[in-house]
Amino acid sequence: LLSADGRVRASIFAEMSALAQATGAINLGQGFPDEDGPEEVLSAARSAISGGMNQYPPGIGLPVLREAIAEHQARFYGLEVDADHETLVTAGATEALAACILSLVEEGDEVVTLEPFYDAYGGLIALAGGNHRTVPLRLPHFQPNHDELRAAVTDRTRLILINNPHNPTGTVLPQETLELIVELAHEHDALIVTDEVYEHLTFGQQHIPIATLPGAWERTLTISSGGKTFNTTGWKIGWVTGPARLLTQVLAVKQFLTYVNGAPFQPAIAVGLGLPDAFFTGIAADLRTKRDVLSAGLANAGFEVFESQASYFVVADAAPLGYTDAAQLCRELPELAGVVAVPISAFCHDDLGAEYASLVRFAFCKRVEVLELAAAQLGDLR
Ligand code: PMP
Ligand code: GLN
């Protein structure tokens, strides 16, 4: 976690956002939207603050949010979740991941993730003393090979940690792969932690929470967050749902991480979770347009673009432009094109496969005019 000279190693997202600020480049690196979300949600937070909701809420979260989370799981996925015992509010999905991993993984336990993987997974598995095994997502569709998945999960596996829809590739795992993961978890008595923060940001495919599959609920913890769905990444309100037996262990750790989280933001996220269906289909449709604008721009600029099925992100290969080292390209990109992006290598272990070396992640959760400007500037790379 520290660099060789003893300094804190900044996350790739912080590093790239700092680069964008320093150079004035367009930030397609860190995934955060450049517009506010629904006014109902924002005004609910304002009202909560002016109404005096400014002291510690309960550690497990305010009842109004826990009920809204349970209702959301029932409404979208037909999952019956007990708000009192099967939901836990956290400081974003990040704390949810931390509390799940730190509570369930013992020194030496194996944790299997897909690769590329969201950077916090690697750091948290290391903090817990776990061994991180990965299953590569294979080009061009960034799907895991089932034989490789089978080989990675063994009796040493404590957790299978998946991210679906997937950051950074925008891939959605098909039902057969989710079924295999449940089967492997049973076979090897492993638990499943699933990070579904992009659950509402899919472009045509229905999101299938792995917890809805037969035999999954009892061994699965599902994580999500209000940040992506309501454009409130700075509020850090996330949650975990799952069986009470497992959530109790997660809460035992969570209480010593943050104790409690952002009281006035909790009723506001509850309002968001209760918005009509049209809101949820609307945000996905809007983001899909943005994906299309940026993907077309990247293709015009000479990148090979891999279709993103979900999330804030699209992956593009810089090799056709003559750039084989995406990490190097991303350091130069502000100067070359006035754009910041993130190399896929930042989501991989050091021995990353050669097929990933020239891949770049671009965020399209920005206003269309910003994406068009970025695309035009990237045209200078040729
Ligand atoms: N998981 C994934 C896959 C993410 O992309 C992110 C970041 N946006 C997080 C977790 C962290 O979410 P939060 O900001 O709610 O902590
Ligand atoms: N999840 C966002 C991303 O992948 C931002 C994460 C962060 O800043 N830690 O870009």
Which strand order does the major sheet show? 2-9-8-7-6-3-4-5
Structural class by sheet pairing and helices: alpha/beta
CATH superfamily of the largest domain: Type I PLP-dependent aspartate aminotransferase-like (Major domain)
List the total number of helices.
13
CATH fold name of the largest domain, please?
A: Aspartate Aminotransferase, domain 2
Taken as a percent bin, the fraction of beta residues is 15-25%
CATH class of the largest domain: Alpha Beta
Q: Low-confidence segments, ≥5 residues, pLDDT <50?
A: none
* Cα shape: globular
Work out the number of β strands. Answer: 14
Secondary-structure arrangement, i.e. CATH architecture of the largest domain: 3-Layer(aba) Sandwich
Helix/strand order? HEHHEHEHEEHEHEEHEHHHEEHEEEH
Largest beta-sheet details: 8 strands, mixed
Number of domains: 2
Mean pLDDT: 96
Catalogue the ligands: 4'-deoxy-4'-aminopyridoxal-5'-phosphate, glutamine
Oligomer: single chain
Family: Belongs to the class-I pyridoxal-phosphate-dependent aminotransferase family.
Domain Aminotransferase class I/classII large: 25-370
Organism: Subtercola vilae
Cofactor: pyridoxal 5'-phosphate
